[in-house]
Amino acid sequence: MAGRKKRAPVAVVDIGSNSVRLIVYDGATHAPAPLFNEKVLCGLGRSVATTGSLEPAGVARALRALRRFRALIAQLHVHRTEVIATAAARDAKNGAEFIAKAEEVLGNRVTVLSGTMEAELAALGVVSGIYAADGFVGDLGGGSLELVDVRGGRLSNALTLPLGGLRLIDVSGENLKKAREIIDSEFSKVTWLEKGRGRDFYAIGGTWRAIARLHMAKTNYPLRVMHNYRIDAPDALKFVGTLQNELNEDMPGLRDISSARRETLPYGALVLERLIKQMKPRSIVTSVFGIREGLLYSLLSAEERVKDPLIEACHTLALQRSRSVENADELLAWTDDLFRVPGPVETPEQTRLRHAACLLSDIGWRAHPDYRGAQSLNLIANGDLIGVDHPGRAFLALTAYYRNEGVVSDALSQSLVELVDKEALRRAKILGTAFRVAHMVSAAMPGVLPHTPLGYEGDRLVWTLPEPYADLEGERVSRRFKTLANLLDCEPEIRIGVSFQRAAS
User: Fold this and answer.
1) In what order do the strands lie in the sheet containing 80-85?
2) What's the rounded Cα separation, in Å, for the pair 422 and 303?
3) % helix / strand / coil in the chain, to the nearest 5?
């Protein structure tokens, strides 16, 4: 049984215009897992635009938070600490003075990011956390909005605009009509926004995450996972329009939004509205990966950067929770022949999801047998996975559910079924059932599956158990294999002691 590889924790302290945040990750990897996450809303940049200085109360609050962060970093035995500061510290006349105090409090150098650096790190965060991202990244903070074009992992047209939520409140005198004029004036200077037409817009920042959370509550969305949450642009445009009016306390999900964040909601909604109208994207995609994750990604080697974030995250989870990662790898090869002609043929993305499903197939084994299906489903559906959209996440969760519960019972999976199409649901049932068959002969341990291949012969699904493995056949094994064959519209045949001959494709 493989153990978990020990990693050296890495901390990122992000001193923003609205909030100061500490995140300690389990290591600098493509799929970092947060060990600790704390945010303090300080409002450093609340009055920078009109006074030129950081808010005194915000400065005091931020330094107090940073003092606590230093103690936490020591407590967590952090190997490396990166500290960054963004628009407020960059633009304020007393920004350098504040940074000097912050460095003293933290005992660590603070890197004040330029607007371009901020935009590029935000984009790298999206590249690291969303598979094959193609569109515009927008990071809305308290002091600024960063925009950058992402295509094929490459960045272009990075810029920063003075359109952060707190800044807009300050310069508009809390007047939304005036704020709209300011926003439109800034966007009119950007000549390449039309390049976003028909592509995705990746929204980063606490205000935009709050908007997505409210939309989830309004639509009674079956998942609570923010990352990769997608809203069609027309729907998003209509929704953000409602948020620019007085917020109703009865609005679903509003009570979960802090009062400090509510203040910037109408302005964040206004910026998003004007962007959608100018850019005309296909959809708005929420990314919880941003500057901090982009910074970690920038520290990786070229070899690490090209790894698939979903597969890396699933591999880590398999190391932590499954009995054998080697068995998961064997499952991938063992199920290859199920998804070839005359069976259901896969696209590259479907193969990728099958690989992830194999890695996750045994993560619920420590739970009581009566609850393995539910626990596996919930862990995947609501877990810290990246590099997968919500339909893909639902597919993985359903596959794990069917692997533990069989395909007869849908009682705990109905809320997720609406996120996948009929073909994906069929594939989840086939794959989950295949895992059930494999488990009956391998006991989730390596070394057996490579010698017990599956394949098609005409209208039959043939499973070969050579002589050394013949005694592994039994009633439950036969029943599960029959269910698998039925799902594939085939006749089942378990061939004992006879070499398997793969039919020519």
Assistant:
1) 34-41, 19-25, 10-15, 80-85, 110-112
2) 37
3) 50, 15, 35
Looking at residue 273, what is its pLDDT? 98
Distances in Å between the Cα of 101 and the Cα atoms of 90, 127, 315, 422 are 15, 33, 42, 58
Continuous segment of H or E residues that includes residue 496 = strand 491-496
Q: Given this chain, do its domains 116-293 and 309-496 carry the same CATH topology?
A: no
3-state DSSP assignment of residue 76: coil
Q: Please give the backbone phi and psi of residue 76, each rounded to the nearest 5 degrees, phi first.
A: -90, 5
| The pLDDT of residue 413 | 60
pLDDT at site 258: 87
From residue 336, give the alpha-carbon distance in Å to each of 194, 197, 339, 341, 498: 43, 38, 6, 11, 21
Fold adopted by 116-293 = Nucleotidyltransferase; domain 5 (3.30.420)
Query: Six-digit token pair at 417?
Result: 């079924």
Per the omega criterion (within 30 degrees of 0), is the bond before 342 cis? yes
* pLDDT score at 412: 62
Intervals of the chain under pLDDT 50: 1-4, 500-505
pLDDT at residue 30, as a whole number: 84
Residue 267 and residue 176 in contact, taking contact as beta carbons nearer than 8 Å = yes
Token look-up 């924790």 returns 9
Element containing residue 44 per DSSP (H, E): none
| Residue 502 pLDDT | 47
CA distance 403 to 114: 50
**Got the DSSP string for 273-325?**
HHHHHHH--SEEEE-S--HHHHHHHHTS-HHHHTS-HHHHHHHHHHHHH-S-H
Distance CA 450, CA 331 (A): 9
- Give me the amino acid identity at 330: E
Other C-beta atoms lying within 10 Å of the C-beta of residue 67: 12
* CATH match of 10-111 with 3.30.420.40: yes
User: Given strand 283-286, what is the order of strands in its sheet?
Assistant: 154-161, 145-151, 134-140, 200-204, 283-286, 230-232
Distance between CA atoms of 14 and 392, rounded to whole angstroms?
31
Which class does domain 309-496 fall in?
mainly alpha
Q: Cβ atoms within 10 A of the Cβ of 251, count? A: 14
Distance of CA 483 to the CA centre of its chain: 34
pLDDT at 429: 96
Q: Where are the domains of the chain?
A: 10-111, 116-293, 309-496
Confidence (pLDDT) at 2: 41
Beta-bridge mates of residue 34: 25
Q: Please state at what angle helix 325-336 crosses helix 348-360, rounded to 10 degrees.
A: 140
Q: Are the beta carbons of 341 and 505 closer than 8 angstroms?
A: yes
